[in-house]
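Here is an idea for our session: we take a single protein and study its fold together. Which protein we use is up to you, so please pick one and set it down. Once you have written the record down, we can walk along the chain together:
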Amino acid sequence: GLVTIHDLTLAQQFDEVLSGRYTFHNMLGKDPAMQKIFDRVEALAKTDVTVLIEGETGTGKDLLVKVIHSAGKRADKPLIKVNCAAIPDNLLESEMFGYVKGAFTGAYQDKPGRFQEADGGTIFLDEIGDLPMALQAKLLRVIEAKEFYPLGSRHSVKVDVRIISATNRDLGKLASKGVFRYDLFYRLNVIRIELPVLKNRRTDLPLLISHIIRRLSAAKSGHPPEISQKAMEILLNHDYPGNIRELENILEHALIIAQSETIEPDHLPDYLNHLSDNPNAFSPDTLHQPRLVDSVNQTNTTYRDTAAELFQQDNDFRERDKLIQSLRIHNWHRANTAAALGIDRTTLWRKMKKYGLTTPL
C-alpha cells in the first residue's frame, strides 16, 4: 500500500498546521511536551526574562530562539548569535564585546562587538557551556549592570539586550565541577526550557515528515511525492539520534534519489535500511504501543489519537462501543471523558458526531 502526503489524514493534519493549531511561529508539534513549551514561550516572549534552552544537537534550539525573539516586543530589533564553541577563546572576548583602536596589534579602528550590535534586541549565546571562565565574569557584569568594557577601553558601554542562551550540556553539572560559575548559571537559568529529543515525541513524526517534504518539494517547485508503506514504517521507527536535523537530511536525501517518484526504502540512506529489522518496531500486533504505522493508513483516524489505546482498534464498531462505555462511565461529561481517553475535546466531539453519539444513549 502507499501512504500519500495527499491522503485525507495528512491533508487534514496539514490544514490544521496552516490554521495554527499545531504551529507556533514556524515550530511544529502536537506532542504534549511541545504544546507545553509553546504555552510557556507565548507567556515569556512578551517579557525580557533571561531564558536558558537545553537540548541535544538538532532538537531545534536555534529555531526556538527565533520564535521567542519574533513573538516578543523586540521583534523588529536585531537578533544576534554568538556560538561560544565555534570562536577560539582568544578571539571570543573581542568578538562579544568589541575593541577600541590600538587595543592590540592590528586594531586600527574601533570595532563594536556582538553585544553592541544586539543593542535594543536579543543576543543568543549558543553553546554557553563552552564559555571560558574569564569571560563568564564579564558576562555576569553585563547581565547585572547592563554595561561592559570593550577590549582596551577605559569607558564602559551601556546596552539594552535580552539574553537567551542555549546548551547541549548540563550547566548545573558543569557548575558542580567548577568549570562554570554558579552565580552565572543562576542568572542565565531564570526560565529554563528543555527541548525533547525526537524519539520522545514520536507522535509528531508524521506531522514533521509531511511538513518537511512539502517544504523541500516547494523549494524545488515540485509536488510532494508519495511514501510507500514500508518506507514510512522505517521513518516512523527510527530513533533519530540527530533529531529533527537528521530527519530533514534523510528526507532531502530521499527526495533527490527518488526523483519525484514514490519514496521507497531504497531511496532512504543505507544506514536506515539496516535498522528496519528492529524487533520492537511499531506494528499492527503491538497493541500496547501507540500504533503510528497503522494510523498512517487510516483515513478516518487523526494522528492526535494515536496515543490513546481506545483508538488502536481498526474496527469502527469496537471504537464506537468503547466510546459509549467511556462516556457512560463519566456520565457523558465530555471534558472528563476526553481526559480519560488522552485526547482533546474537539477530537472527542468529532468522534461523537461521527458515530451519532451527540445525545446520551
About this structure: The longest helix spans residues 243-258. The chain is about 45% helix and 10% strand. Confidence is low (pLDDT under 50) at residues 1-8, 279-315. The CA atoms of residues 31 and 203 lie 6 Å apart.
